[in-house]
Amino acid sequence: MNMKPILIALCCTIGLASAGAMAKCNGPKMGKILKQLDLTSEQQTQIQTIRQTQKSEGEAQREAMASVRDSNRASMKALMENPTFDETEALRLIEEKATHKQTRALARMQAHHAIMQVLTVEQREQFLTLMEEQREKQQKRKNKKSS
How far is Cα 44 from Cα 128, in angstroms, rounded to an integer? Predict the structure, then answer.
């Protein structure tokens, strides 16, 4: 069995997942947008607490996943070095990575939702407008780079 096409497909899948994660890092920054809102000191405190909790949980989750990542790298290496391709093992590795990504996305969404609940209706509308403006600016920069 020729493993080269399978290896290329697997690397592309992993690469695309990494690219998606990078795109999130370069997306509109919530903190920058929140600074543009007229927040009360109480709202600022509540949002700071939510963001700090999210940061702490994220750090704890990253630390917990470090050993899993190492294990997955070893499994991936063994999979690629094995003379026969183990599709079940490959799918397990892909699924494990997808599950971790989904868990992180869910945590981000929960924090975002909690922050939105702190805002007044007017602030939410302004926040969403500013977010959309940031996305449009980002898209223009992206289109400019690709041309």
Answer: 18
Token pair listed for 48: 């700071």
Phi and psi, residue 85, nearest 5°: -80, 130
Question: What's the CATH code of the domain at 83?
Answer: 1.20.120
Look at residue 89 and tell me if it is in a domain: yes
Contact (CB, 8 A) for 115 and 47: yes
What's the rounded Cα separation, in Å, for the pair 57 and 135? Answer: 27
Contact 65, 108 (CB under 8 A): no
Domain count of the fold of the chain: 1
Q: Give the domain range for residue 106.
A: 57-133
Q: Is the pTM of this model over 0.70?
A: no
Name residues whose C-beta falls within 8 Å of residue 114's C-beta, 6 or more positions apart in sequence. 50
State which amino acid sits at residue 56. Answer: S
Q: Give pLDDT tens digits for 5-61.
A: 444 544 444 444 433 333 343 335 777 888 888 899 999 999 999 989 988 888 888
Helix (H) or strand (E) holding 36: none
Alpha-carbon distance of 71 to 64, in angstroms, equals 12
